[in-house]
Amino acid sequence: EPEVTQTPSHQVTQMGQEVILRCVPISNHLYFYWYRQILGQKVEFLVSFYNNEISEKSEIFDDQFSVERPDGSNFTLKIRSTKLEDSAMYFCASSGQGGTQYFGPGTRLTVL
Amino acid sequence: QQQVKQSPQSLIVQKGGISIINCAYENTAFDYFPWYQQFPGKGPALLIAIRPDVSEKKEGRFTISFNKSAKQFSLHIMDSQPGDSATYFCAAKAGAGSYQLTFGKGTKLSVIP
Q1: DSSP notation for A24-84
Q2: How far apart (Å, rounded) are the C-alpha atoms in residues B84 and B48?
Q3: Do residue B99 and residue A4 have CB atoms under 8 angstroms apart?
């Protein structure tokens, strides 16, 4: 069964450093998303991406965040200058035309 | 208005019992209501979903009941099993071209033998 994959599974970084989280969505999906989940809290929407551009973003997704689909398979989330409060689980998701979103296993980001 | 309120926060059910988790929303533009199951260290996995033109949907032991006038929906897990122990999130998708999911805060279900 096709699935969304994410790398790395755990990323540790120093405050102020840039991080790039990577995702490989399901191959025939056209819509891509990033969500985050702070430990013990609910899953929060960050951004959606379709046709090589951002279609929606939340208030969390400020100028420190960016997304890119650098090739036909990867979808990345970049955080330019990480803060302590960026520590969270980051989930990539993808969907086809039907809209059902399938989530990857997540990347745990720890900012020290 | 974008919130989805979920209760209870945690739930303990005996094996074989019925688990019931409730969600309520305010935004009438929501047009799709999925439930996700999450095991520790894993991503949310779609369990079952419903659209507001249907009052109930059943898939195996899992049933969603939807009350459009009350703006409430619930997940029922029949014959609950220890393997069902997980965190369950209700969610809602805003309509009109939006694909953003708004999640509830989650319910940690423990099914005891």
Answers
A1: E--TT--EEEEEEE-TTS-EEEEEEEETTEEEEE-TT--TTEEEE--SSS-EEEEESS--G
A2: 14
A3: no
Under DSSP, is residue A100 helix (H, G, I), strand (E, B) or coil?
coil
Walk along chain B (113 residues) and give the pLDDT tens digit of each residue.
569 999 999 999 999 999 999 999 999 889 999 999 999 888 899 999 999 999 999 999 999 999 999 999 999 999 999 999 999 999 999 877 788 999 999 999 999 99
Give yes or no for B105 touching A (CB within 8 A): yes
Contact B42/A106, CB-based, under 8 Å?
yes
d(CA B96, CA A33): 17
Q: Indicate if the alpha-carbon torsion angle A80, A81, A85, A90 is positive or negative.
A: positive
Averaged pLDDT, A53-68: 95
List phi, psi (to 5°) of A86.
-80, -10
**Count of C-beta atoms within a 10 Å radius of residue A77:** 25
Interface touch A105/B44, C-beta < 8 Å: no
Say yes or no to pLDDT of A1 above 80.
no
